[in-house]
Design a protein that fits this description.
The chain has helices spanning 40-47, 95-98, 139-142, 145-159, 175-187, 214-222, 239-244, 267-272, 285-294, 311-316; strands spanning 2-5, 15-18, 28-37, 63-70, 82-85, 88-89, 109-110, 122-126, 130-132, 166-170, 190-194, 207-209, 227-232, 246-254, 276-279, 302-306, 326-330. The chain is of the alpha/beta class. The protein has two domains: 2-144 and 300-330, Medium-chain alcohol dehydrogenases, catalytic domain (Quinone Oxidoreductase, Chain A, domain 1), CATH 3.90.180.10; 149-279, Alpha-Beta Complex (Quinone Oxidoreductase, Chain A, domain 1), CATH 3.90.180. Helix 4 crosses helix 5 and helix 4 packs across helix 9. The chain binds zinc ion (ZN). Zinc ion (ZN) binds next to helix 2.
Length: 333
């Protein structure tokens, strides 16, 4: 099969190669991949995450496809089933798994980081990670649920956002941002997107502010009360702005560090306003099940669909200001 592979980290070391189709084992399924999403986690896997495994490595943390073969002991899945893949490997037995937080499994890892991923024609995953998708659901949405949609869904859940509250989404035109807007809007919050792209109004943003003037505009919009929830998928560069946007009792949920990961906190300001800073990563398997069931209700904006040969340039353009929606990898065989 064709796969995007690297042996040494660095975008310059990515190449498309012919490698053996992985073999199914007990409790696993072989997925013929139809589409994969391109996310910051893939960029990091290729460039900087230590102990990526195995090496040589196939990145790609978000993908969907058809079951090609089922391993022994697998029930409820058959060849030809259309599936999307929950992207955390989890044991199902540890304290975190038993509490329903499979994304925090103590022996867990992200598929595409701790195992080979989806920038390939086939991948083997645990059968318990493969979710059948509803008839009629397109591959584009199916391949956007495991990382983009689930990360936003869980972050919004962690924020305890309620109807009538003000939610600010940083990086609102990005992969997670577009879903966060929709989920926040669905809850009934006054949803504000920070972005240069005015089309995010189609995804539920009541207001769109450019980051340069966002704090002042939010002050105006809320009559000085500021936000109840700020979602920060961008990290360091936008940290201070996000903190300034929090009102009394506000919550900032962070789940990405695209712009850096070292941040400062004015603890005096934090405790006196009783604000909270919440970390969030991925989502639970129950949340993923909910998303898969409801996926038809959500929208997507696709910027580019590329082939495996263009994965490198797709990763390079992740942060491009010209990007207008999702980057997806399409298997063209
Ligand atoms: Zn576990």
């Amino acid at each position: 099969m064709k796969a995007v592979v690297f042996e040494k980290q660095g975008l310059e070391n990515l190449s498309v190669r012919d490698v053996e189709i992985p073999k199914v084992g007990p409790g696993t399924v072989l997925v013929r991949i139809r589409m994969a999403g391109v996310n910051p986690i893939d960029f990091k896997a290729v460039t900087s995450i230590p102990h990526v495994s195995p090496v040589p490595h196939i990145p790609g943390a978000e993908f969907a496809g058809e079951i090609e073969e089922v391993g022994s002991g697998v029930s409820g899945l058959a060849k030809g089933d259309r599936v999307t893949v929950y992207n955390r490997h989890f044991d199902g037995t540890c304290r975190m798994c038993r509490s329903g937080n499979q994304q925090l499994c103590v022996s867990g890892y992200i598929i595409g980081v701790g195992s080979n991923g989806g920038f390939a024609e086939y991948a083997v995953v645990d059968a318990k990670n493969a979710f059948r998708i509803p008839d009629g659901l397109g591959w584009e949405m199916a391949a956007s649920l495991p990382v983009s949609a689930l990360t936003a869904y869980h972050a919004i859940a962690e924020s305890r956002l309620k109807a009538g509250e003000t939610a600010v989404i940083l990086g609102a035109s990005g992969n997670t941002g577009l879903f966060a807007l929709q989920f926040a809007h669905e809850i009934g919050s006054r949803t504000i997107g920070i972005s240069r792209k005015n089309w995010i109004k189609e995804f539920g943003a009541e207001m769109v502010f450019d980051s340069a003037s966002a704090v002042e505009k939010l002050k105006e919009f809320t009559g000085g009360e500021m936000a109840d929830v700020v979602l920060n998928s961008l990290g360091e560069k936008f940290w201070d702005m996000g903190i300034k946007m929090l009102g009394y009792g506000g919550r900032m949920v962070g789940f990405g560090t695209l712009s850096g990961n070292m941040v400062g906190i004015d603890f005096n300001e934090m405790y006196s306003k009783q604000t909270r800073i919440i970390g969030s990563t991925g989502g639970t398997i129950d949340e993923f099940g909910e998303l898969v069931s409801n996926a038809a209700a959500y929208k997507l904006r696709v910027w580019k669909k590329v082939g495996l040969e263009e994965v490198k340039s797709a990763l390079e353009s992740l942060e491009s200001p010209e990007r207008e929606g999702r980057l997806l990898v399409e298997m063209r065989n």
